[in-house]
Amino acid sequence: MCFWNIGSPTPSYPCTLCIIKSILFPPKKKKPFPLLYLPFVALHSVIKMMDPHELVKLSMCSYRLELFLRCSKRKIEHLHIHLNKKFYHIELVNGNARFVTYFRNGEFEKPVITVKRMLQFCGSYESESDKRLTFTQLFPLSLCFDVSHLLLSLYSCPLIGWVFYMDQQDVETVRRYLDIILQGRCDKITFFRSEMSSEFLTELMDKIPLDKKLRIESNIPSDFRHPNALKFYVSQYKNGRWITLDDLKTIRNVLYVFLDSTIFNCHDINEFLHYWINCDEKMFGQMELQLDESVEIDEDVLKDGLITLRPEQQPDEFLSLYL
Length: 323
Prior knowledge:
Helices cover 28% and strands 24% of the residues. The chain is of the alpha/beta class. Pfam families: FBA_2 (PF07735). Residues 32-79 form the F-box domain. InterPro entries: F-box_dom, F-box_Sdz-33.
């Protein structure tokens, strides 16, 4: 408190004694917390309590911290890498929480030519809101693989997916990036928007290994056919009108099949169920078929020739088939 304002909780101006004191005894600057000097067990516990965005920001503080985080390998459930002509972002999924690290084109004094360390993005950090970490960074989309490798090195996850937005990327770019993706870590590939030609779809299904998960949220020509269409480990098609009953009967040893907007009716489903029951080989682990809204569900047709059980605790619309 200033000498001339004794008794006042808020001095109006500094007195001579306060100025002399500040010169002779300047306030000590707070030293940064020596995080790396903590014992390993304590430091590991601190890192485990951080969310993915905090780890990203921490990795940009110094190269030593980045190396330590690479060794720690924070576990997450899913990681999806979205490729778009206007932006590039990485979505981290851990339980019910989703964290997005978002890179968008913008004004930056020194465009990035090579990506080697997270420290390079420190100057382009823009904001964080609603679990979204935004960077204003100017770099060619081809460097997105280098950026993803840096972020992937911080985490350990069982599923890594790549997402293409077809309405904002030309086919040649998608072809080039797909070749690079298939050479590295890739568990699931998703295509959004726009209609895909039969030629490009044929090329995709010839190129993508059958042990991958394939999801196509784009329109598919009704006359398209391919022997591998339902042989991927997971197959998800928003437009399933091109899938026939014979295609369903070719399914073998897959985990999951999802077909939306199909052309099947109750007779087709009943025929397929009979084929499934009598098949000696394992066909699939789970299947979801969405019938057209114009199809009227007739339970008698669906259950014809099948032994069914309706649990008392379930609503009347619920139907279980025990094979």
